[in-house]
Design a protein that fits this description.
Layout lengths: L2 E3 L10 H8 L2 E5 L8 E8 L6 E4 L12 H6 L4 E4 L19 H7 L4 H15 L4 E6 L1 H12 L4 E7 L18 H10 L1 H11 L8 H8 L7 H11 L16 E6 L8 H9 L3 E6 L6 H4 L1 H14 L2
Parallel strand pairs: 4-5, 4-6, 6-7, 7-8, 8-9
Antiparallel strand pairs: 1-2, 2-3, 3-5
Helix pairs in contact: 6-9, 7-8
Keywords: Hydrolase
Organism: Leptolyngbya sp. NK1-12
Pfam family, one: Abhydrolase_6
Length: 310
């Protein structure tokens, strides 16, 4: 399998973990049923061992979200972070980008929860190809639940970090018709807006640094970012898996920040009650992103879970 490293501007990054991870982002051409052309899929891989860990990021994010957690996990396990379809540095169109206008290329690939699952399965088949520990943060948790329910043979354990997917999100997608969709994404592109979201995600505001802001915004210049985000939101994104969670037989760890201001606390206990083989670990003095705010504690909780779960 041929891969190539991305060349990203690193001049505004200051944290060593951010720089190191940005330098290690690779792309693999993944063939899927979604497009006649392969999709250049961004990922980072570190570590060696027998049990692969796969990390899935949140909404409008990228593999850089795991800049602090991934190296810690990779000290014990082979660990992958993958950019979901329509997000991060994964291409929003086929590789032959000069053959036709971008709008027409992007229109060929659907951006929805179902398409993300199809693309992720193809990526797993090419890059990993064996049962994995699937770790999903925020929207990535909903993607992980969806994947584990559809392909249970591929997921031997599940880790949900302040996960979406229990309560249905706001139904705003149907209103994102031109020009409203472009106005909404232009608002989200604004760095002051992104900084306010970053501040809300942390319990300790000192983590909302200039480096953190750059990590949340580096993928915004990718071709098709705006069109893909609008299309995904209009598709409905991820709804509630509440009615299906009883069928989730995968041993599951639920990690949740005690001071989560994005999703609150209630869904954590609801997940634990609904998923048969699950345990809940609260992360004290922590907001919506334990993997960024408490990476060592998050890694240790995952290690403990993997060592003790059947």
């Amino acid at each position: 399998m041929a891969t190539r490293f991305l060349s990203l501007p690193l001049d505004q990054l200051t944290e060593p973990t951010s720089i190191a991870l940005a330098q290690q982002i690779e792309c693999a051409d993944i063939l899927t049923p979604l497009s006649q052309e392969p999709i250049a899929t961004a990922f980072v891989r570190q570590g060696e061992g027998d049990i692969p860990l796969v990390l899935l990021h949140g909404f409008d994010s990228s593999v850089l979200e795991f800049r602090r957690l991934l190296p810690l996990l990779a000290s014990h396990y082979p660990t992958w972070a993958i950019d979901l379809l329509g997000f991060g540095f994964t291409a929003r169109c086929g590789n032959n980008q000069s053959a036709k206008p971008l709008a027409k290329q992007s229109a060929q690939i659907p951006f929805s929860a179902a398409a993300i699952k199809t693309h992720l399965y193809a990526t797993w088949s090419v890059l990993i190809g064996q049962p994995m520990v699937l770790v999903g943060a925020s929207m990535g948790g909903a993607a992980a639940i969806d994947f584990a329910l559809t392909y249970p043979e591929t997921v031997q354990r599940l880790v949900l970090i302040d996960s979406a997917g229990f309560s249905a999100g706001p139904a705003i997608g149907k209103y994102l018709i031109p020009p409203l969709g472009y106005l909404a994404t232009a608002y989200l592109r604004n760095l002051k807006v992104r900084q306010s979201i970053t501040l809300k995600a942390y319990h300790d505001p000192t983590y909302a640094s200039a480096d953190a802001l750059r990590c949340t915004a580096m993928h915004l210049d990718q071709p098709g970012w705006q069109q893909a985000l609008i299309a995904f939101t209009r598709s409905g994104g991820y709804g509630s898996f509440q009615a299906k969670l009883a069928h989730l037989q995968t041993p599951t760890l639920i990690l949740w920040g005690e001071q989560d201001q994005i999703l609150g606390r209630a869904d954590a206990e609801k997940f634990q009650q609904a998923i048969p083989q699950s345990q809940l670990v609260w992360m004290p003095a922590c907001g919506h992103v334990p993997h960024l705010e408490k990476p060592r504690e998050t890694a240790q909780a995952i290690f403990n879970f993997l060592e003790t779960s059947p």
